[in-house]
Amino acid sequence: MILEGLLCTRTAGGQPHLAPMGPAIDLESGSLTFKPFQSSTSYANLVRDRVGVFHVTDDVLLLAQAAIGKVPLLPANRPARQVPGFVLREACRVMEFEVVSIDDRQDRAIVQTRTVHSESLRDFFGFNRAKHLVLEAAILATRFHLLNLSEVAQEFRRMAVIVNKTGGPQELAAMEFLQMELEDRMSIQPTDQLPPLSAKERS
């Protein structure tokens, strides 16, 4: 099973680095398997320090900002309890881990870990369509360079209708942030005029 969240590693200078990540989780042991690109900062940090902290959060604005690499201000944090690293104080749940093995034979390395400490910090908000759609939009945003931007824009417009209906201020801000990022990308790579949303897309 894939668990979406935020991975916090340390840079070479000892500063926290946030990145959205969807590791596979072993439901029995709680161990996490990451598949970062070898070109990523997260991968370099994991190879060097061989530890990290994975956060389960319902803060979709932070997830969206981290997906684009534009977190304006690092959230409140404290030192991790069992590994050298940082814990975001407003996360719902955190898992501190050590790297057990790294398979780097593919562009996306396979990083096997062992969870050494796990704790709950606050309740998860609960299921909400807007939060889930912003999460999907953030995942798409990490792939702007691989996707047809016209198709992404149409999907964002469909998502925005539902986010506006079911979301709160945080979700609306996150969706607007991602739409602005897409507009910036499309201004560099112009696309055709998009058709209006159909009635089915608005439902």
From TrEMBL:
Transmembrane segments: none
Domain DUF447: residue ranges: 4-120, 128-178
Domain of life: Bacteria
Official protein name in the record: DUF447 family protein
